[in-house]
Design a protein that fits this description.
Elements (H helix, E strand, L loop, with lengths): L2 H10 L29 E7 L11 H8 L3 E3 L2 E2 L5 H10 L3 H4 L20 H7 L3 E6 L6 H5 L9 E5 L7 E5 L2 E5 L7 H15 L4 E6 L38 H4 L6 H34 L6 E7 L18 H4 L3 E5 L7 E3 L3 E2 L3 H9 L13 H5 L8 E6 L9 E6 L2 E6 L4 E5 L17 H14 L18 H9 L1 H8 L15
Parallel strand pairs: 1-8, 1-9, 2-11, 3-12, 4-5, 4-8
Antiparallel strand pairs: 2-10, 5-6, 6-7, 9-10, 13-14, 14-15, 15-16
Helix pairs in contact: 2-9, 7-9, 13-15
Length: about 500
Amino acid sequence: MTRRALAACALGAAFVLGSPAIATASTVATSAAVSTDPVPPDVVLVVTDDQRWDTLEGMPSVQEHLVGPGVTFSEAFVVNPLCCPSRTSILTGLYSHSTGVYRQAPPFGRFEAFDDTSTLATWLDDAGYHTAMVGKYVDGGQGAMLRGYVPPGWDEWLAFVHADYEDYQLSRNGMIESLGGAAEDYSTDVLAHEAIRIVHEAEGPLFLMFAPAAPHEPATPAARHRDAPISLPPQRPPNYDEVDVGDKPPWLRTLPPLSMDDRARLDALRVDHARSLLAVDDAVGRLVTTLEETGRLENTIFIYLSDNGLAFGEHRWTKKEVPYEESIRVPLVVRADRIVTQPRVDTRLALNIDLAPTIAELAGIEPPGSFDGRSLVPALRGSDGPWRRDFLIEHLEGSNPVTTYCAVRTERELYVEYRDGFRELYDLRLDPYQLENAAGDRSVAARERSLAERLAVLCDPPPPDVAPIVRQAVAGGPVAAGVAAGALVSVAIGAVLGRRRRSPPRIAT
């Protein structure tokens, strides 16, 4: 028996599918109970790039093989709506204030800011898993990969040097491979082929992370999908190209209305997003078939999500990073045949920081330290019980003009405090498109104070290396009154802005 197979048998003693233990964010979110089941689960984690939560209906394989038999989390979110920090949170179960990765560029961002010596890969590898990374890792690692860097914990490493669809480079265990623009070089298909090979060849329990470039712009479809019929009428929700942005933050007020060219480009990009996802959908179908053929499917935890959402013109915005629903909300589906007895839609708040503690619990491992997220295993089992009512969203201003902020998103509200003192408050049941900023409205003053107090607890430490918030009255309108109303709490937050990252508080959410 191989070393890995021996380790797998030892690990199996800790794998518990029926354990009643429920982990919380304030403790290590794993199960310490012992099971008689000798086989730990395989884990397949699919992470797409910039996929909106409302795009799964156009993916028939995902619908058949994941949504149909699995749990779809309809209220799934990321805690920092940007690729690099979101991916580090997925790999660690930690908020940005715990990883130190807030944005795409240094300082406090990009590959250089990420300490990847303790991740899902290292924990599972140490526990005897065969670990494989296929696709996009963390933004900004090009230089390190060109020098042969392979992050710790990965037994197989086939990562983008820079994620793209054609004419790109991959690092295969530290060796660089260049691929061109031929149909057979299309990156999603190349990565899918490698992922399927890994499933066939792996011994013992498998952790496979499959992270294609799709549907990130330019959202180039595979040759076979370039003319695929896509039934997507132009999307024009009430907040599309928002007419009156006078109650929005100062940076957003500077955005001009969308031009006709802007509208045409966004409509075309939305169609290309859908077409580029068809190759991902094919890959999911092939992976599920391969897992079934190799006898692994019944004991596989198959997780599908995106690193963040994307705006297609809502509030005049066309990127991510903002605290609005289009950016923070993501698709999240989990198929786990040995746990999920009743396929369903679950409406609990689920976060990208929940994946690491979920996988750790199911694998029966105890990583060093604790998590900011919490295990989704109770939700997968359909168990009732206490659950989070809110969560923190963090953002540090980078190359885009979105001002540094912290926000708290509850089951029905969004409250945001920006570095410059501006605030937003939306009741999402009354105003789902976030058109009317209620910050400063006397009728919600008590609720606003409560949310500000909660945010002061969650946003600790706040985003680093920025000037303290200085509350200044804004001439006219309810927002100005709101600035004054929340000054005490906001000044308390502002007083600690600029503080460097300290030991993470592991906030219970």
